[in-house]
Specification:
290 residues, mainly beta, Neuraminidase, five-stranded mixed beta sheet, four-stranded antiparallel beta sheet, 3 helices, 23 strands, 10% helix, 44% strand, globular
């Protein structure tokens, strides 16, 4: 309320309405304040605190998968996970929040951070992916991405893009980026030009809130923000081929006031291992589909 109240009242002052305010006009102004505040963007760290909901109902044309936990590994509970990949036997993980954003290499078995590079406090880190020895990392609202050497985490470049940055993966040749909508943008990693857009649908309807992405055996897997579901997307058509329901994978006993939403998919193409985690979660889970 402290941000939007002065903005709303300034409109009334300009038009001289504050001097003529009556008991009948006060409710009107209060309603205006509420409407104005409700239109304000919520910071992601606050939005993520909202209770995850299941938003997709599968039909017969879409495969529905459950899961089985094969192993559970420690995870840094201070890591606000935005991107997760397996590279060179380690996790590459990007984290978010202003002042806490980083790119890091993490030992899978122990959860130990082997190397970390922090972002400037002005940047809210988002998704990341490794392509041809380079890590590409997005930021949320800055419209700026960073490029790091995948081994040393040394900064080797920057790039810009329009709109918000959410999740990032690649098909071995090009980057694939989400922005929270139902559209995925395919980006040339040399020119950073959008070469194609993928409209994601399920049973003919757009699927929105696509967040962290992972390329898995020719499919794009995407976390659905604020849910415990992952969708499996055909990159050619944009159609959702399947929905993975991870409801309850992190038990209530492992949650606390800082626990946020499911976010983080990693696939080891060599071993076919699938890993999932969440923001400020104490564990990374290796799973199989049921």
């Amino acid at each position: 309320m402290n941000v939007c109240v002065p903005q709303v009242f300034s409109r009334f002052v300009v038009h001289g309405e504050t001097k003529r305010m009556t008991r009948l006009s006060l409710p009107i102004i209060l309603c205006a304040i509420i409407v104005a505040c409700s239109s304000e963007r919520k910071p992601e760290e606050l939005r993520d605190k909202e209770k995850p909901t299941q938003i997709l109902q599968t039909e017969s044309t879409v495969t529905s998968n459950g899961f089985k936990v094969l192993r559970r590994y420690p995870h840094d509970v201070k890591a606000f996970t935005q991107g997760l990949e397996v590279y060179d036997g380690l996790f590459v993980e990007s984290t978010g929040q202003n002042g806490l954003s980083s790119i890091r290499r993490v030992e899978i078995g122990s959860g130990k951070v082997k190397k970390v590079e922090d972002l400037d406090d002005a940047f809210f880190g988002e998704g990341a992916t490794v392509l041809k020895g380079k890590i590409y990392m997005l930021t949320w609202l800055n419209q700026m991405g960073f490029v790091f050497d995948a081994q040393t985490l040394k900064s080797v470049g920057k790039f810009s893009y329009a709109g918000e940055g959410w999740g990032l993966t690649n098909d071995g040749t090009r980057l694939i980026m989400s922005n929270g909508s139902s559209i995925l943008n395919v980006i040339d990693p040399n020119s950073y030009r959008v070469v194609r857009s993928i409209s994601v649908t399920m049973n003919g309807s757009p699927v929105t809130r696509l967040n962290e992405l992972e390329w898995v055996d020719g499919e794009i897997w995407a976390n659905i923000w604020q849910s415990e579901q992952i969708v499996r997307i055909d990159p050619a058509s944009g159609r959702v081929n399947g929905v993975i329901d991870l409801t309850g994978i992190l038990p209530d006993s492992a949650r606390d006031a800082n626990t946020d939403v499911l976010n983080g998919i990693a696939f080891d193409s060599a071993t076919k291992a699938i890993y999932v985690t969440g923001k400020n979660w104490p564990y990374v889970f290796q799973i199989s589909l049921q």
